C-alpha cells in the first residue's frame, strides 16, 4: 500500500535518533541510505526549498558533517535522488517488456503494473520526481531533462505497441502518457486506499485507446 501525505507528515515528525549512536552503529552505506530516506521524506512533504539540512540530519539522526561526507550539498542530495528514482522507475517496466518479447499482449499490463509497483515501493522519492521542483534553477533544469528522457522512452514504446501512428504526433502523445502516469501516481499517493489494480486498469484503458486510434 502506498504511503499517503498524512502518514508521511507523521513519520517526518518521528523522534530523531541520537547522532552519535546512529553514526557508530551504521556502516557507511547504511548511513547514506538513512540520510537519503530522511531527505526524501522531507523533500516530498515540504518541497526542496522549504527543507533545511538541519531538518534532514535531525530526522536521519546523524550530524551535519556526516551528511557532508556523503553529499556536497542539499542540492546534490536532491539531484541524486531524482536521477536514481527516474532511472529505476524506467527500468521496472523495461524488465517486463524484455521478459515478454514473445507475448506483446501480456507485456503492456505487466509493464504498467511494474511501474506502479515501483511507485508503491518508493512513495517519497516518487512524489519528489513527479511534483514540480521549485526554489533552484539547476534542480528545475534537471527535472525538465528527466521528463524529456521519460517522454522519449514513451515515444519509443509507442512505436513498439502502436506502429503506424503519425510521426508528428508521437512526441505529444509521449507527453500525454508521461504526464498521465505522473499525475495518476500523485493522485494515488494521496489516495492509498485505492488498490493498485484499479490505477493500473485505468492507465491501461487510456493507453489502449491510443492503440485503437491508429490510422
Radius of gyration: 19 Å
Strand-pairing-aware structural class: mainly alpha
* CATH topology grouping of the largest domain: Tetracycline Repressor, domain 2
Count of alpha and pi helical runs: 11
Which term fits the overall shape?
Answer: elongated
CATH architecture term of the largest domain: Orthogonal Bundle
Total number of distinct structural domains: 2
CATH class of the largest domain: Mainly Alpha
For the termini, the CA-CA separation is 39 Å
For CATH, the homologous superfamily of the largest domain is named as: Tetracycline Repressor, domain 2
Task: Report the mean per-residue pLDDT as an integer.
Answer: 86
Tell me the major beta sheet. Answer: none
Helix and strand run: HHHHHHHHHHH
The number of distinct β-strands equals 0
Low-confidence stretches are: 1-23
Residue share in β-strands = under 5%
Notes on the protein architecture:
The protein is mostly helical and 215 residues long. It is 78% helix and 0% strand. It folds into two domains: 5-74, Arc Repressor Mutant, subunit A (Orthogonal Bundle), CATH 1.10.10; 75-212, Tetracycline Repressor, domain 2. Helix 10 runs antiparallel to helix 11 (196-212). The N and C termini lie far apart (39 Å). The relative contact order is 0.12. The model is unreliable at 1-23 (pLDDT under 50).
Amino acid at each position: 500500500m502506498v504511503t499517503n501525505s498524512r502518514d508521511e507528515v507523521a513519520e517526518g515528525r518521528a523522534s530523531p535518533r541520537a547522532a552519535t549512536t546512529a553514526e557508530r552503529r551504521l556502516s557507511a552505506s547504511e548511513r547514506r541510505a538513512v540520510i537519503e530516506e530522511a531527505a526524501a521524506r522531507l523533500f516530498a512533504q515540504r518541497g526542496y526549498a522549504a527543507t533545511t539540512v538541519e531538518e534532514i540530519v535531525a530526522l536521519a539522526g546523524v550530524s551535519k558533517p556526516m551528511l557532508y561526507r556523503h553529499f556536497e550539498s542539499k542540492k546534490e542530495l536532491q539531484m541524486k535522488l531524482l536521477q536514481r528514482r527516474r532511472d529505476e522507475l524506467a527500468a521496472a517496466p523495461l524488465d517486463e517488456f524484455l521478459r515478454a518479447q514473445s507475448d506483446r499482449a501480456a507485456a503492456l499490463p505487466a509493464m504498467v503494473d511494474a511501474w506502479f509497483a515501483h511507485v508503491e515501493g518508493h512513495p517519497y522519492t516518487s512524489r519528489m520526481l513527479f511534483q514540480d521542483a521549485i526554489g533552484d534553477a539547476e534542480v528545475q533544469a534537471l527535472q525538465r531533462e528527466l521528463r524529456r528522457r521519460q517522454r522519449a522512452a514513451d515515444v519509443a514504446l509507442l512505436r513498439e505497441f502502436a506502429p503506424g501512428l503519425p510521426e508528428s504526433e508521437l512526441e505529444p502523445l509521449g507527453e500525454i502518457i508521461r504526464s498521465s502516469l505522473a499525475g495518476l501516481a500523485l493522485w494515488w499517493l494521496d489516495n492509498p486506499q485505492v488498490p493498485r489494480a484499479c490505477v493500473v486498469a485505468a492507465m491501461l484503458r487510456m493507453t489502449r485507446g491510443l492503440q485503437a486510434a491508429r490510422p
